[in-house]
Amino acid sequence: MGLVKTKITLKNVKDIFKVEIGLLPEHKVRQMTETVLVDTGAWTLVINETTREKLGLDYTGKSPGTLADGKKSKYNMAGPVEVLWKDRHVICEAVVLPEAKDILLGAIPLEAMDLIVNPGKQEVVGAHGDQMMHIIYGNL
Fold this sequence. Notes:
The chain has three helices and nine strands; from the N terminus they run βαββαββββαββ. By secondary structure, it is α+β, with helices and mostly antiparallel strands. It has a single domain (5-130), classed as Acid Proteases (Cathepsin D, subunit A, domain 1). The strands form two sheets. Strands 1, 2, 3, 4, 5, 6 and 7 form a seven-stranded mixed beta sheet that branches. Strand 5 (72-85) and strand 6 (88-96) form a beta hairpin. The protein is globular and about 45 Å long. The N and C termini lie far apart (40 Å).
């Protein structure tokens, strides 16, 4: 399987809240649409410092992590950020890797939007077709 990319939109959630309470006009919401690398080995969204600054995301803390090359460290987290893919969305935090060349869409936002990677077509698709579905397990 080769590299899988998809187009997403990222929005600053604090800006969205300001629009909702009338403190910011909608056209001022900081956002960007990019073609990103889908990485099911990454646990969440990964952005670089330039993207964090462009979106105006605040640092929210640090999280331990291991890069693909084995380097372990505590990495800055930023957010909240809304991730939109077609008609689906999720709000999450992002790991900030200052020199990352690609934005990575990781496993948690993929799962939250009910998305999977179709390796045969090298594309992102809905796990349950075009209709988003959350499956809830438990004794009801």
